[in-house]
Model the fold of this input.
Amino acid sequence: MNNRSAQLLAATLAFLLIVLVGAAIFILLSRPAVPGPTPTPSGSPGFTPTFGPGASGTLLPTASASASPTPIILPTDSPSPTVQPTITPTPSPSPTPSPSPSPSPTLPPPTSEDRHLTIVGFGLDRRTDVGSVQRTVTFFVDGPSLISARLSGVNDGKVRMCLLRNEQDPQRECITAHGGTLSRAVFDVGRTAWNVTLIGAAETLGQYGTLDLTFNALNPELRLDSFRFNGTGDPRNNGFEIVLGPNLLAGDFHLHAEFSDGSPHPWHLRVAPDDAAGFDQTGGPSTFVDVTTALESGTVYSVLFENPEASASVLLDNVSLTWP
Done:
């Protein structure tokens, strides 16, 4: 064989080799993709792709060359148990303890006689009127005493009545009512003066009422201020009628009275036991009255002081009554 023939044969074999290699590559590329090896858990034999003879691409199992690391098991979140809310019962409010009242001092036993008097059916000014004045009754207490002033017999509407020690008494007690009682405990060991004031609170004219006083006194004394002295044509506003007793001792009754205008006026005074003859005197005209008469013990007396004229317009001033 010459060189020319050898060259031609070599070229032909090379060409065939190229065609075969190309065909193999084409077949490999046109085959469906083989899934890769699935990773196995640590410690299991692994698979290493190994091409055997003929380049078939068969996967041969091979043992892992090294020990796999111990797997770390992460805790799974288990569902938390449902926590039921704890309901704390609302505590019932405890009643606030009321402060214990301070014990009232015990009133010592009276050291003077029980006294009682009644001013009967006297007229009252209406406080809404111009020139109206309140009636003022002053009485004197000797030593410890429980005193009371009771309003009754009011013909119409309400009356404003106050019990006080003096004009600025911070402990004054008042009512505005058709009737009622005001009381106070007196702890003084000496002689004290107490006042009751009254004025009409009704819208109608012609109010009148009755006042009862109870107190303790050795030598009882009563003073009246701003009682009207209008004559027999206005009997509710014509002086006063007072019932004294029953705890009277034998002794003298004394009355002193003056008139607010300073002018002389006639007057009539009667001091008598119930249903019996007693002292009865008419006097004046005069600017004041000062009369004394004797009383018997244990007897109830009615004292009437009035203007015997039919009409007048004057107030009584500085009226003072004392009795045994």
